[in-house]
Fold:
Amino acid sequence: MTELERKLKAKIPGEDTGIEIHRTMCDICSPGMHCGINAYVKDGKVIKIEGMDGHPVNEGRLCTKGLSNRQYIYREDRILTPLKRVGKRGEGKFEPISWEEAFAEIAKNLNAAKEKYGAESVAFYSGYSKWYRQTLRRFAYAFGSPNFGCESSTCYISAFMAWKLAAGEQGGGDMGNSDLFLGWAYNPFYSSYMGAHRAMLLKEAGLKFIIVDTRRTPASEKLADLFLQPRPGTDGALAHAIANVLIQNGWIDKPYIDKYVYGFEEYAAYVKGFNESNIESLTGVPYDLVVKAAEMIHESKAMSTNECSAPIPHHKNGLQNYRSIMALAAITGNFDRKGGQLLSPHTFMHTSCGFASREEEYLYEIKPKGCKDPVGAPRFPLWNYLEGEMQAVDLSRQILEGTPYPVKAVYALGMNARMFPNSGKMFRALEELDFFVDTDLFLTDSAKYADIVLPACSSFERGEFKPYRDGLAWYTTPAIAPLGQSKSDVDILTELARYMDLPDEGIQAGYEAFIQKYILDDLGVKVNDLKGVDLPVKIAEVHVHKDFEELEKGLKTPTGKYELKSKVIEDHPEWGLDALPTYVEPLDGADPEKYPMTLTSGGRLPNAIHSRLHKVPNNRSLRPDPMVDMSHADAQALGVADGDPVVISTPRGELTVKAHVTHIMPAGMLNLFQGYSEADVNSLMDDEHVDPYSGFPAYNSTRCAVRKKD
Ligand SMILES: Nc1nc2c(c(=O)[nH]1)N[C@H]1C(S)=C(S)[C@@H](COP(=O)(O)OP(=O)(O)OC[C@H]3O[C@@H](n4cnc5c(=O)[nH]c(N)nc54)[C@H](O)[C@@H]3O)O[C@H]1N2
Ligand SMILES: Nc1nc2c(c(=O)[nH]1)N[C@H]1C(S)=C(S)[C@@H](COP(=O)(O)OP(=O)(O)OC[C@H]3O[C@@H](n4cnc5c(=O)[nH]c(N)nc54)[C@H](O)[C@@H]3O)O[C@H]1N2
Ligand SMILES: [Mo]
Structure:
């Protein structure tokens, strides 16, 4: 082997090897992460990746998902040209067309729906990807439709709503300054690895942890000083019982409550109902552990808790349970105090960067007025009041039933029908549409229902503005050219807006102009200053927290106080919702004799994310088959060994998967990860079994049965 061959084999960058390192970013998981990546590029192709040293999020590391980026962007089902459907919906028969033809077809059909049924008959939808959402929302509004909606109809927004009700805006835990962390449905080891890294460092530095989880997890094993294991969706009852112990023992901050908290007396009277007599039967948690948790809270100087986008909200009582957990900080004086829960308003795309921006202006200034309410508004009035966007959980119903008005066309970016409860219904709805466009990197099963499929490029092939916490930001530059004819989502939307001549300067000006005018101008920063930088740079000084400053100013709630009892809900009795964080049992109405087990489906897998990585060979190899987690006790009762096929059933249908017999599961509960095309857990879920406060599906508390496959 020559010296050059050796260097090529080792992928060493240099003029002789023609290998260059291009700096880019992973956008496979949440915007709160988006780790820096060094992409080794040769002849326009990524041949190796590694975590970027010095990047504020990952400091050189990458997780199993991040490490999959090379295989992900070159997945064999990548779409390389615009496509037009020539077969039946779902069949997957398409012919390539030009961008010009695609735009002409889309413009013609969207305008036809608008003319015949009104602009609201066209819904604009985004799957989990987020980076283009401001542009998509503005596009929808410029088109005249109130129906912008997204996957956040099942993720995070319920928590945001709970914060808005209680404190007027978004907040989070000041973990680094706490001495007790209440990790409620908290397992960052699988869902946010750098969060786990931080938690471990803080643990070493003395931070105490209470972990509340339905399963045993790395967090319960490695972090917990106290571990509480309630049954799914019983968290509200558990939080109330802890609150009751705190109140009965006088372990609360009464002067703080008197000054800053609204609704305490009624709340205190209500939580009395959760006590020694009933808490173990309600939740499965022994009362002495409830008392122990209250003691630890009492003994701590400052307690914070985690944000929770999914497992607490994913129950029919999810938003109320979330409020119940949040209440513990308010009654102990831990809100708006160093080391407790602090407000952290959004800067950009639900990420708090600690400085103000005019994002909301860009999002809402052209929102159509006097038009119909968005999809889901009648069914979920609190959602509509607080969010004012489509609750996409109601989309399939409205398409199929046509009430209160018809929805005939969907323009989607990253539609994954399998993320919705009763996913078969979403597939049927897509089949019923007059016109469906999907934009994706891959020809997914959902994209196969589209009339026109548009090829999006990945984060390696585009440039985008990306802020991080602590006032840092950069504007990435493409590491490689877009594959085939694919384009960045925002370029597609801008070009289409220009093609359709939508009457809005803001959308026609494009993404970069939006970033400059609405985000950076006020900070005196230019987009170009943020391009080509090696690492994210400081673009603003972050607001420094002062204890009780927000409470003294008055919160953005109707009473200006922290609301244990929601004035917004109190003032709208017609919604039929409770102003106090009341507790109801989580399970659905299926016959408990026939369906004696509880099916949960969340519990992230470190190597998978939703529907995205099941087709990436490295990730798939780590867990090749869809598997249902099951306790040893249940496996024994069924006569099932690890790896045996079992049949899970609910009133919606059956699924056969392999059993994963594990000590992490309690008896009576099954857990199956979502997004597999061959074992779609959401085909078993009920789209009526949802939280009336938020519209969020109860993915984590569905009655089911399980049997050994004959
Ligand atoms: N049973 C069950 N169901 C759940 C959940 C659960 O816990 N259990 N969780 C819910 C939650 S919290 C979430 S967030 C959702 C997940 O929401 P989904 O929308 O299902 O998420 P993904 O599968 O990650 O992505 C959807 C599509 O976006 C495409 N995509 C990726 N990047 C881009 C891009 O840059 N541009 C475009 N145009 N497309 C792109 C992907 O290829 C994929 O087809 O699922 C929800 N559903
Ligand atoms: N690897 C990976 N990372 C991800 C994702 C992914 O799919 N894969 N998805 C991303 C997205 S969109 C989201 S929303 C987040 C979600 O991330 P997380 O919020 O961490 O969500 P989960 O992993 O579903 O649940 C966390 C823990 O809550 C427990 N739990 C479930 N139900 C209950 C309950 O009713 N009560 C209590 N007390 N505990 C419960 C589960 O057992 C689990 O250990 O992760 C993000 N990160
Ligand atoms: Mo999510």
User: Anything to note?
Assistant: The chain has four domains: 3-73, 96-156+354-538, 173-343, 597-708. The chain has a mean pLDDT of 97.
